[in-house]
Amino acid sequence: MIFMVKTKQFEKSISQIKTNNNFCMGPLVAFIKQSTKCYLCMLTCIVLMYNATAQKRHTLNKHSTAISHKVFYGQASFYANKFNGRHTASGEIFNQRKLTCACNVLPFGTYVKVTNVNNGKWAIVKVNDRLHPKMRRIVDLTSTAAIQLGYKDKGFARVKLEVVNALQK
Question: What is the DSSP string of 59-105?
Fold first, then answer.
């Protein structure tokens, strides 16, 4: 509908310019003002449609199979013993003997295969906590998972994260 209005305004302005022998600038200026409004209207519609699809994509990535094929690489560490028995960000009570992790890029309840890039050892853990926002590590594992991956003595390891199963809401 916007395009039809623009076309009629354009034809009207052109016919006014053609009929006027001395080429008055008034109709041309009016056309430019009106066409600018149309372009702004079209631009607003495009931005609104893009935002709607971006929000739809974001909700898909958050909880569905769209994240099931994601692979992340980064630095891993493990929790200190002082956190044992405290509440995690998801509300669960933290236990060093479970295979859980803290991760800022995946939703709670997501199961992730964490592979130590240096030795190939891996573990499947559940995301139930968050890292500090300024933390540059991708994941913080329990000491049980760190032992299973073989980096407990070193403290850090380069790891690969693969989403195994995303939580469906």
Answer: HHHHHSGGGTT-EEEEEEEE--GGGTTSB-TTSPBP-TTS-EEE-SS
Q: How far is residue 140's CA from residue 127's CA, in Å, rounded to a whole number?
A: 10
H or E element at residue 56: helix 26-63
Between 140 and 17, whose confidence is greater? 140
**Per-residue pLDDT tens for 100-118?**
999 998 999 999 999 999 9
Q: How far apart are CA 124 and CA 162, in angstroms?
A: 9
Amino acid 167 reads L
Q: Tell me yes or no: is domain 67-165 CATH 2.40.40.10.
A: yes
